[in-house]
Amino acid sequence: MAQAGRLPDDVYASVDARLAEADARVAARYPGEPAGRQPVHTVYVPANHYRAGLAAEWGERAGAVLAEHGSGLAASPEVRERVRRKLAEQPIEDLRIDFEDGYGAPGDEAEDTEALRCGAELAASSPPPFCGIRFKSFEAATRRRGIRTLDLFLGALGQPPSGFVVTLPKVTAIEQVEAAVVVLAELEKAHGLAAGSLRFEVQVETPQSILAADGTVAITRIVHAADGRCSGLHFGTYDYSAGLGVSGAYQSMEHPAADFAKQFMQVAAAGTGVRLSDGSTNRLPVGAAATVHAAWEEHARLVRRSLEHGFYQGWDLHPHQLPSRFAATYTFFREGVPDAAARLRDYVRATEGGVLDEPATAQALAAYLIRGLDCGAVDEAEIGDRTTLDRAALRNLVDRAASPAS
Questions:
Q1: In order of start, what are the domains of the chain with their CATH numbers?
Q2: How confident is the model over 49-58, as pLDDT tens digits?
Q3: Most buried by CB count within 10 Å: which residue of 78, 172, 332, 379?
């Protein structure tokens, strides 16, 4: 029988009562890592270039450049074969039909027509696992146009496909996020959609989305102002850098100013269920073999850097970036699986290995292995052989529903 301490029961009860409201608030605001797959990239396509079948076309173009220049892609034969299969089977994981910077402002009549056409074509197609549109920002000059495009698009689309999300760009005030919540609720009513079904990503591409005018951390307020509708924070490399006055020659995903913003994004999103995406590189693998190889090398390095920093998603802007995206991603997971699996196996068995891991680290290791499975870098049989755990057991560890065996 456990020995009782000296504090009476009413002290315990008093502390529970004192913290009950805080407990509920923390549980609501920080639900933890969401279940379900996160895409490794988002492909942005200008609305006037979108058409049904575009994903397959991108896969064919990416496969062709891989066949022609694949010797310059830094990857093992096994990874290269996985990339080849990926390009043939599912070249785009997340597609964003772009009505903002990539599209421009051709006038109301043209954009109305394009919004209706794109919505109808998406409805008639077999879209990638994740898809959506980026509409114009809620700043005064573009607000009404952005809302109208979204309204017309949804009308032509009908019931949105699974994995549908919209993108709110260029946030310069918390109130814009609050307004987006109201607009999406009204659109759900107008189009007969389930309440809360429309979710959005916020693009972090202005200084005001990191630090508010009153000195508070804006990005944290943005996440919570979304009232549960925010599914992701996407970093906009070039708009953000330009907003800080960084010269075009030095704008990059790895600029210290970009890392500063992304670290704030990580802290703000941690535990909230809001996922993160890094930005893009504008150096395209097109032209002569040497140019393609150099662009692949840079892109793969930046993708790897993002993954090491905890950003498991990024933007791709051209079909020729797909080989380096998937090669870098698969290599990252395949190289790390042996160590991660061994540590997790030791943790679950409560055996002594070279590293003594905490429950939080075991949680992160399990999440890492699930990401490797989700993106196709590794197979369930490989993970099972190395860890003795199946996907459900890994998920239990992510949810901290499992503990080491005694």
A1: 41-334 (3.20.20.60), 335-398 (no CATH)
A2: 999 999 999 9
A3: 332
